[in-house]
Amino acid sequence: xxxxxxxxxxxxxxxxxxxxSFRIPxxxxxxxxxxxxxxxxxxYGYSANLLMTNWLATWRYFASKGLRVYQTxxxxxxxxxxxxxxxxxxxxxxxxSNRLAVNLxxxxxxxxxxxxxxxxxxxxxxxxxxxxETNGVWWVTNAACYAGTLTGAGANYALDANQTTIxxxxxxxxxxxxxxxxxxxxxxxxxxxxxxxxxxxxxGWTTQPDNTSTYEIWIMPTGxxxxxxxxxxxxxxxxxxxxxxxxx
Length: 248
Prior knowledge:
By secondary structure, the chain is α+β, with helices and mostly antiparallel strands. The chain folds into 2 domains: 13-139 and 225-245, Rossmann fold; 146-219. The chain has 6 helices and 15 strands. It has helices at residues 13-19, 39-43, 48-64, 96-107, 114-118, 230-238, and strands at residues 32-35, 68-72, 78-80, 90-92, 124-126, 133-134, 137-138, 146-149, 152-154, 157-159, 175-181, 188-190, 193-194, 199-201, 214-219. A 4-stranded antiparallel sheet has the order 8-15-11-12, with no helix packed on it. A 4-stranded antiparallel sheet has the order 9-10-14-13, with no helix packed on it. A 3-stranded parallel sheet has the order 1-2-5, covered by helices on one side. The chain is elongated.
């Protein structure tokens, strides 16, 4: 299925309402619009009511051009002290109440909800946020997916020559390594590449581990608390009703 992206980095629903008409020619021939603006509006402190108003304007615009329009719910905006490898060490942003309010409105099937308010311009809501959040923060797997004792390390990598079960490059910007014991214990780093499969590259160490260091590898749903990593994308994709993309 062909698609075109009409948004840009750092974009907001407010900005799209003001300037979106300049981008529309790139999407000529489209039959479906999936709207995902909103988290930047929340981050910038825009009110829930303003975001709802701008969404309504966007949906009506696309619907007036004959497109079926879908809106996603807004995923979490959090910070973390352990590279998003736990739920308890995440904290929500200062405008979390606005995110919760707009998601509640999107999910409301009643007369006060988004579908009713859109008066036919919104065809459905893709609840992608529900697939990746728990109690307002990014979900995290309940256990490490790999663990062991390092056989060596360098300034920007850790090595476990005894670990042979991890496919090459499957951890790239998708997982974190925690040094759980021995030299360097307590450090958590995003894995930027695993190639060979049992060599885990990182940006660097405060204290370089060695062969006394035990470790765990955790899959990360996000790396910055806003943008999903591969596991987050997969969960969100699984939450989308692909039947909406079929037929006229």
